[in-house]
């Protein structure tokens, strides 16, 4: 950035060690300068003057951000560093400003009468006001949730009515922060004031057999298939009616053959959350304890959508060279040359695969920062750092999984990265569902008389 005279944007500038921030002090002077002493190739070998200095063009500019909950909260920056900046405190948007943004987005992206759009905005902000007053609500600034709700409303197919999309958006991007029982209590408070919308209360119900969810006392073959194809070729869940456009043309037989998971109520709820994240244009993180099927449900959605999903398993040793690529030596026509070789992530993007970033909270800050532009809501292109490669992101979806921070030395995601995702916290399957899955997986063996349901009961009880 210095050499090209561009803009250097330092996000969360107060988080690094003080030695790192003070290393940049010379760039923050009225007449900036910088000496790159860390580059040994710039040191002279013949005793002549070292060429360590980097010319700083007059167009070079530094911007930085820090997170401060209140003006009284101390910043982890030295007085010397702070004195070199012009400090501007950015205040949150007011509700009036947020409403103006929402109405403008609906007006420009949603073909509906003005009165209907205004009523939709009323629903969003009236319900949002009740939600934000709940003690369990932990999100102080919810502009990302608000934008995701509006994008979901506008992006979803019109096979669902406008108001159904509004209430589904509020459910998936606001009410999902609460337990199912609390969701209904909150919505009941809203219905007390707006009784005419009580007809949409069913959108908060858990999946039942009519939605294709298996129950322990219901024969598998008596339950409808949980997915259907709309007239426009969209894959639609019977549960809530939410739908997504597949990557390739799908027939009913192809849809059934690609569905291999057991449709328990928990699985169908997870599918609806993933569909909602896709329609909002935002990447999704599934968070939950190990072994509950986070990776499997993402692969299942990719399978029914007719797209290949590339799984990238993150760890402490995962490097940007592995993910993005690097320059490597080759021998061509008897001569050694240096060429760029794409990493696994870039190869997957170019092949239009979906990406599953497994164990994302094991990745280093360096890796997360480099991938941040890829996770921006409704991003259209990704410029690979350190190269001239620019990848089109049309049709690409980003998913991630992570175990809780208290499991196996994992760390919390930085807030600047976490805010880019829709985060869905998954619980373990309940005992009835686990028993149901066991019966499904061994149904052929039971039918052939190899084992019996009593054997499965014994195994299940032993596991518990």
State Rg.
26 Å
Give the low-confidence spans: none
Query: What is the SS-derived class?
Result: alpha/beta
Distance between the termini: 58 Å
Question: Count of DSSP helices?
Answer: 17
> What oligomeric state is this?
single chain
Strand order of the largest sheet: 9-12-15-8-16
Indicate the mean pLDDT: 88
State the share of residues found in helices, binned by percent.
25-40%
For the sheet with most strands, the description reads: 5 strands, parallel
Overall 3D shape: globular
Strand content: 5-15%
DSSP, total strands: 16
What is the topology?
Blueprint: E1 7-10, H1 18-23, E2 34-35, E3 53-54, E4 61-64, H2 79-82, H3 95-109, H4 114-132, H5 143-155, H6 162-173, H7 180-193, E5 227-229, E6 235-237, E7 243-244, H8 252-258, H9 265-280, E8 284-287, H10 294-305, E9 309-313, H11 320-323, E10 325-332, E11 335-342, H12 344-350, E12 354-358, H13 365-371, E13 381-383, E14 390-392, E15 398-402, H14 415-418, E16 422-425, H15 431-441, H16 443-447, H17 453-463
Helix pairs in contact: 3-4, 3-5, 4-6, 4-7, 5-6, 5-9, 8-10
What's this model, at a glance?
The chain has helices at 18-23, 79-82, 95-109, 114-132, 143-155, 162-173, 180-193, 252-258, 265-280, 294-305, 320-323, 344-350, 365-371, 415-418, 431-441, 443-447, 453-463, and strands at 7-10, 34-35, 53-54, 61-64, 227-229, 235-237, 243-244, 284-287, 309-313, 325-332, 335-342, 354-358, 381-383, 390-392, 398-402, 422-425. With 464 residues, it is of the alpha/beta class.
